[in-house]
Amino acid sequence: MAYAENTSVSAERSRAEIETTLKRYGADSFGYMTDARRAQIGFQCQGRLIQISIAIPDGSQLKAKTGKWAREVTDVQRAAWVEQENRRRWRALNLVIKAKLEAVAIGISTMEMEFLAFTVLPDGKTVGDWMHPQLEQIQASGKMPRLLGVGS
Questions:
Q1: How far apart are CA 128 and CA 117, in angstroms?
Q2: To pair with 36 at 20 to 30 A between CA atoms, which of 3, 58, 83, 142?
Q3: pLDDT tens by residue, 65-104
Q4: Which of 92, 104, 113, 121 shows the shortest CA–CA distance to 24?
């Protein structure tokens, strides 16, 4: 069973809980935006701008989740599944953010360690977006890249 699979908590309430949690742990700004394919939250905490995205379900994942092809379900069933999956994803994001901030607060980890991949760089990309292709190259080649600024 997936986390929060049967939650009745709305995405809006989860977003509000995330904002409250962020404020409690010292974030000094918060915002979110959505489009048809993803939702993003952004916040600033300890001088870092953080951006986390989640995919918005569209029903194409129904086969993987339910074993039924999209054509085997009605539009009403598809819409209900999409809404439930959206609620579930926001609950999971809420849980992840709370856990990361609590780990930072009690000294298990640091802000940089917990949110490194989601830290926004000057060009607007996150560290994770910037690093992903480089990590694939490193894995494929088995060689470490030169350090920035070394040997330049």
A1: 4
A2: 3
A3: 555 555 567 778 888 888 999 999 999 999 999 999 999 9
A4: 104
